[in-house]
Amino acid sequence: MVAVARKRMPNTDEASVFEIDVVEGLSATPKRIPAKYFYDGAGSQLFERITELPEYYPTRCELRILRDHASDIAKLIPAGAALVEFGSGSNRKARILLAAAPKLAAYVPVDICDEMLLQEAAELRGDFPQLKILPVVADICFPFELPAEAKAAPARVGFFPGSTIGNFEPHEAAAFLRNAASILGAGATLIVGADLIKSVEVLNAAYNDAAGVTAKFNLNLLVRINRELGGTFKLDGFEHHAFYNRERHRIEMHLASLKRQKVKVAGDTFEFRAGETIHTENSYKYSIESLGALARCVGWQPAGAWTDPRDYFSIQAFRLGE
Ligand code: AVJ
Questions:
Q1: Residue 30 preceded by cis peptide, ω within 30
Q2: The model's pTM
Q3: 207 CB less than 6 Å from ligand 1?
């Protein structure tokens, strides 16, 4: 996600930001498109299907850790605290913490997509009537204001599940952690879900499922560009590539051009060599130590870590000094 290093221009609407990012990314060498653009309606549905694939372990592992260790994790949440979830999407994981921490005063889901956010907020109000639900529409990569009631709470606890942190470059992950620290303030706690470094076979299989759902998810980016930006991508001219890059501890996803071809997007023409790829995603894998070191660099002290029985995934907690 390149957006961290750049100021968001308040007058540029979402559609033109997408166009700018795609045209800029296809003009670069090597070609790239930010992974956040996977999640249009169809892309979000495809991602939901990915989470149910036998090869895709992260979601199941994370839910298992949250369920198995909910009461331990909840010990890090002080009475009267506000839980701030960064990029909430579906609240499935937060609900486990909310149920385990009955003394929480407020839940603040933060997401750029207001539709999903407000709908989920309404459902949560029904299920947790004693809890203040205070949704915030914001891009989590940039500073944003917490609602007054969350600022007034005796403590704030950040929650960033799903290994979304793995989509950031390490320097962007550090910038995110720094931003989270300034938003949550002194004495804060942060609970992060991070996928762990593991065998190459397990990693590669998780991003190359036999049913081809991940391939469809990757190619859906081209469908979205065709629809929203007047693109002329032919879906049978590109192929899903995903592999683990051992040196950089990351899964890379690419869309590889099967032949030499030209594609138009938003009035511009882009040329592809045979085999040339668009880099569409990095999914960084951490160890408890490597994420801890990154967090320490920006002032967070490791305060706990939990994993599933196979050590595939981790929930890691950090504390900010008073
Ligand atoms: C949502 C970023 C955690 O990196 O595993 C799944 C996205 N990409 N399959 C991940 C994804 C391909 C996912 N994250």
A1: yes
A2: 0.93
A3: yes
Distances (CA, A) of 150 to 80, 163, 180, 285, 302: 10, 25, 14, 32, 24
pLDDT (tens digit per residue) in 254-285: 999 999 999 999 999 999 999 999 999 999 99
Q: 43 CB under 6 A from ligand 1?
A: no
> Residue 318, class by beta-carbon neighbours within 10 Å (0-12 exposed, 13-18 middle, 19+ buried)?
buried
Which tens digit of pLDDT belongs to each residue from 164-207? 999 999 999 999 999 999 999 999 999 999 999 999 999 999 99
Taking only Cα atoms into account, the Rg of the chain, rounded to an integer number of angstroms, comes to 20
Nearest ligand 1 atom to the CA of 206 is: 9
In ligand 1, which atom is closest to the CA atom of 283? 4
% helix, strand, coil for the chain, step of 5: 40, 25, 35
321: buried, middle or exposed (CB in 10 Å: 19+, 13-18, 0-12)? exposed
Q: Is the CB of 280 under 6 A from ligand 1?
A: no
Assess whether the C-beta atom of 292 lies below 6 angstroms from ligand 1: no
**Residue 1 banded pLDDT, cuts 50, 70, 90:** very low
- Enumerate the β-bridge partners of residue 319: 189, 301
CA angle 298, 303, 308 (to 5 degrees): 110
DSSP designation for 246: T
* Contact by Cβ (8 Å): 62, 53: no
Ligand 1, residues 46, 281, 315: which to mutate, most atoms within 8 A of Cβ? 281
Separation CA 318–CA 191 (nearest Å): 7
Which residues touch 15 (CB under 8 Å, ≥6 apart)? 228
pLDDT at 116 over 90: no
Distance (Å, whole) CA 258 – CA 181: 45
